[in-house]
Amino acid sequence: MFGFGWLKNFASPSELRKAGVLGMNRRNFNVISKYNNRRLYPLVDDKVQTKFLAQKVGITTPHLIGVVSVQNEVKNLLEIVKGFKEFVVKPAHGSGGKGVLVIKRYTPTEFETTSGRLLTFNEVYQHISNILSGLYSLGGQYDVALIEELVHFSPIFSEYSYQGVPDVRVIVYKGYPAMSMMRLSTKASGGRANLHQGAVGVGLDIKTGKSLKGVMWNMPIEFHPDTNADLSTLEVPFWREHLLIAAKGYEMTGLGYLGADIVLDEFRGPMMLELNARPGLAIQIANGKGLAQILKKIDKYYPKKLSPEERVDYVLNKAGK
Q1: pTM of the model
Q2: For residue 178, which of 291, 283, 272 has the smallest C-alpha distance?
């Protein structure tokens, strides 16, 4: 099930292209530059805009508790989170999980993260100040800090992830879910679901949400390194709902190629965390197949002018037949 030989069989870039593997240059010039108008990037690069747009099209997202946009508002943090037992701080223009601070318990003087680390108010104050200064933002631009509700990920995945919240990444092309994987945090990744930081990626069958292959550091893996969970048994429930959230990202943003990150909350079901106009390509390794051939098939055979629901149902019931 976890064969990895498909990639080792190709020694040169030309052979990889023939095998349908989408490389960085082809992604940038043949896909992103062609189908993603740069003027639309702020709709996904700014998480505040993304959240409001999602609400307009009926996509569930974590509740926004508050926004800290200028330095003299940082001191009001305790007032902003009053009535909430836990919360998440994140940069509005961040990427790759950088700058995200998850607080599961706090007093006026002490804050505890999900990893058990204790922080003083001054340390949290400094973290938010760093966000405002652009330390974690794309291009180092000045930023704002979002204060959101904490996602309680479904216990269905508790054995598959270490501390952090596992999420599903879906690549969407011209409104059609094209490829997907689940990202599972590890001790090496610091509890973040980021493959470049050492998280586990599990390719998911686009029709069923069932596990295909597992990878860590771009190498095959069958069991989670920290929990020893068998990755071949992983299956995402409410799969159609996951794909529908991803598909709606097309109407929501106008981007022809995007990545949708979705989490399964124990109480609220599938929720969109964010969208990405430049999703990475490691998802091909997790799936054991190239993305270019799938995009080509969508261009050639998939019907146009369908609703998000119709596109998802086409992928689930008709695509590939």
Answers
A1: 0.90
A2: 291
